[in-house]
Amino acid sequence: KKVILSGIQPTGIFTLGNYIGAVRNWGKMQEDYDCAYFIADLHSLTVRQEPAKLRKQTLDAFALLLACGIDPEKSLVFIQSHVHAHAELSWILSCYSMFGELSRMTQFKDKSAKHVDNVNAGLFTYPALMAADILLYQADFVPVGEDQRQHLEFTRDVAARFNNIYGEVFRMPDAYIPEAGARIMSLQEPTKKMSKSDTNVNAFISILDEPNAIVNKFKRAVTDSETVVCYREGKDGINNLMSIYSVVTGESYDRIERDFAGKGYGDFKLAVGEAVAEELRPIREKFAALTADKAALEALYRKGAETAAHIAERTLGKVKKKLGLLPR
Ligand code: TYM
C-alpha cells in the first residue's frame, strides 16, 4: 500500500478551510492507503504560545482528528513532539536547506511581515521540519490544501538533493491537493484565505460552531452586487460559497447554478449554511464524547507515538549511517 502522511497545527479549533481542504479527505483515504496523521505542535512554536493553552489545544486537536473520522485502528495518529526523530532529522535537513530557497517561501515572507517582533529562526527553517515529518515516514502522498504546495516542492528538492549525494534514502513524496476546496476563502474578505487566526470571528467557521452560529455567519457572508448564483471570475464571495456547497453536497457547479436560478443570494446562503451545519453536527457530537474521556485519548496518543517512533527511527538510523555519524 502507498503511504499517506499529513499534519495540522494545534493553534485553535480547525476551521472549515482546514476541514474541507485537508482533514475531511484524510479519513476517506484510510481504506486504500497506509495513513499517518499528526498534530504539528513543534511547528506551532514558531509563534509564541501560552503553555497551558497549547497543552489543551493539542489534546483538543488530537480529539478533533478522531472526531473528523480518523480511526486509530486504521491510521497512525500521534503528536509530533512525542517522536524525537522529527526534531533530529529537521536539524540534519536544515544543513541541506539553502538560505536562498528558504527566503523564497511565501509563508515565511507573509509570517515575518505579520510578526515583525518575532522573526525567529524556527519560522525560517519551518520547511525543514516539515520535510523531516514527511520523509521520516517515506510518504508517497501528502494531502494538504493549496497553501502548502510550496512546502511540498521544497521537501522534494531537499529529498532529491540528499538522495543525489547519498543514494536512495528518501522516497519522493507528491502533494495531494483536492480539485475542489483546496483554498477556502474568508467569509468577510473572500480574496483572503480563511484562517483561524482572523480577528473577525465572522470571517471563518470553526468546525465546533453551533448550527445557529454557522447559519448566521453564512447569512453575513460578503458576496457582490449582482443577484445570479454562478461561478465566474470576479465573483470571489459566491465562488467560495459555491465551492463549499459543492464539496459538502457533492453537487456540481452546473447543478447548483440551475437549482438556484431565479433565487436570490439569501436563499443560497441559507442553503450553504444549513448544509455545512448538518455536515459538522456529528463532528461536534463526537468531539464532546471523546474529550469526556481524557484517559482514553492519552492511551491512544501514547500508542501512536510508540508506533510512529519505531517507523521514524528506521529512517533516521539510515540517514545517520549515510552521513557518517559514528554509531553509539
Ligand atoms: P495548517 O495547520 O496551517 O493547516 C492544516 C491543513 O489545512 C489546510 N488549510 C486549508 N485548506 C483550504 N482552505 C483553507 N483556507 C485552508 N487553511 C488551511 C492546509 O493546507 C493544511 O493542509 N505546515 C502545516 C502542517 C504540517 C504538515 C507537515 C502538513 C506540518 N508538517 C507535514 C503535511 C505534512 C500547516 O501549518 O498546516
Automatic annotation (TrEMBL):
ATP binds at residues 9-11, 17-18, 145-147, 184, 193-197. The keyword rRNA-binding does not apply. One of its GO terms (molecular function) is tryptophan-tRNA ligase activity. It catalyses: tRNA(Trp) + L-tryptophan + ATP = L-tryptophyl-tRNA(Trp) + AMP + diphosphate + H(+). One of its GO terms (cellular component) is cytosol. Its EC number is 6.1.1.2. PROSITE patterns: AA_TRNA_LIGASE_I (PS00178). Keywords: Aminoacyl-tRNA synthetase, ATP-binding, Cytoplasm, Ligase, Nucleotide-binding, Protein biosynthesis. It is an enzyme of class 6 (ligase). A motif ('KMSKS' region) lies at residues 193-197. Belongs to the class-I aminoacyl-tRNA synthetase family. This is Tryptophan--tRNA ligase. It comes from Pyramidobacter porci.
